[in-house]
Amino acid sequence: MHFGFAPEDEAFRVEARDWLAAHAGTGLDRRTWERTLGKAGWIGIGWAEGGYGNRTATLTQQVVWAEEYARAAVPARSGHIGEKLLAPTLIAHGSEEQKSRFLPPIAAGEELWCQGYSEPGAGSDLAGVQTRAVRAGDGTYRISGQKIWTSLAHEADWCFVLARTDPEARRHHGLSLLLVPMDQPGRIEVRPIRQATGTSDFNEVFFDGAHARVEHVLGGEGAGWRVAMSLLGFERGVSTLAQQVGFAEELGRVVRTAVETGAADDPVVRDRLVRQWAELRVMRWHALRTLGGTRSPSVAKLLWGGWHQRLGELAVLVRGASAGAGPAAWSATAPYELDADQHLFLFSRADTIYGGSDQIQRTIIAERVLGLPREPRD
Fold first, then answer.
1. Which structural domain, as residue segments, surrounds residue 138?
2. What's the rounded Cα separation, in Å, for the pair 24 and 27?
3. What CATH number has the domain bearing residue 340?
4. What CATH number does the domain containing 12 carry?
C-alpha cells in the first residue's frame, strides 16, 4: 500500500491544528471535553458513512488528526474506547437498532465506555473467561463474575463484557459480548487498582447479578469470540501512529538528558540512543505500510512494547543516581509524585504484558500468520 499525504490532507492538518490550538488550555474536565469534541464533529471521523458519525475523513486524514491531537496540549481522551473499539465493532456486527441506539451518543461524547475482557484467570488467555451471563425470563441476562485491568471503568457509562452464556461449552465456544450499563448500584462494583506509579489507571469490576438486555448482545448469542477478535483488530490502527508521536517526545527528552548529564559521551549509551531512534522510525514505516491492511496487529504490539520498555530503562540509565531519588516517604496508600523519567520506567514494565503478553503475541503470529502447528491445549 502506498501511503502519502496529499495537499487536501495538509489542509485538513491545518484545520485540525488550528482548532486544537484554539481549545488548548481551556481547563475543561474530561467529560465536558468529550462533548466539546463531539459538538465540533471530531468524534467518529473514521466511521463508515451512514449518518452515525460526524465529519467524514479519509484514512490519511484520520492519521493527521491522531498525530495532531497527540502533539496538542489538550486533555487525554476518555471516549476513545467507545469511539475506536466499540463503534467499529458495532458497525461491523451490530444490528440497525444497536447502531441507532449506541453510535450517536458516542459521536456526541455523551456516553463513555470501558472494556470488560480480562479476568484474574483469563488475561492474555482470553478464551479462559469465566464470567457468566444467564438468560432470565424478563428479557435480560444476569451477569456474575469479575473483570480486571479495566481502564476508565470509574468514569464509564457502559461496558462491553465478554461473558460465558453457555456454561457447558469450553474455551472460546459459548461466549457472548454483552453491552452492559454501569449505573447498577449493588450489582456492579468498581475498585481502583493502585500501581507502582502511585496512580490508578485501571480497575477491578465485580458483577453481582448485573442486568443486560437480550437485544444488547452484539453479534448474537454465542458469537462472542468472533466479535471480540474483530474488536481487538481495531485496537491497533491509526492510534498506533499517534502513540509514536508521544514516543518521539519521550525519546527526545531522554536524549537531551543524556547530553546534559554527560551520559552521551559513553559510546555504549550513544549506540543505544541511536538504536532507539532507528527502531522508532522502523515502527512508523511498518505502521504506515500496514495501515488499513490485514496483517497481524501482533507484530506492532511486539515492536512497541519492547521498544518502550527499553526506553524506560535508558531513561533512568542516563539520569544516573538522581533517577532513584523518589519521594521522602514511599507509601502504599498515600499518593506520591514521580517525575517523567521515573513514571516512564515504572509504567513501561507492564508494556510487554498488558494488551496481550509478548508470549501470546508470538503464539498468534506463529499459528495464524505463519501457519505453524498449534500449541497443545488442555
1. 113-222
2. 8
3. 1.20.140.10
4. 1.10.540.10
* CB 300 within 8 Å of CB 287: yes
Sequence-ordered list of residues with C-beta below 8 angstroms from that of 352, at least 6 positions apart, any chain? 305, 306, 309, 358
**Lookup: cell for 200:** 490508578
Q: Cell 469479575 appears where? A: 146
Which positions are catalytic? 235
pLDDT digits (tens, 9 = 90+) for 119-130: 887 766 777 889
**Residue entry with cell 465536558:** 32
* Whole-number Å distance between alpha carbons of 98 and 91: 9
pLDDT at 324: 67
Beta-bridge partner residues of 160: 115, 179
Strands (E), the chain: 113-116, 132-135, 140-147, 158-164, 175-181, 188-193, 202-213, 217-218
pLDDT in tens, 217-266: 999 998 898 998 888 766 556 777 788 888 999 999 999 999 999 999 99
Cβ atoms of 80 and 123 within 8 Å: the answer is: no
| Least-confidence region, from 42-46, 282-286, 336-340 | 336-340
59: nearest Cα among 210, 241, 230, 201: 241
The total number of residues shown for the chain amounts to 378
- Looking at 46, 77, 107, the residue that finishes a domain is 107
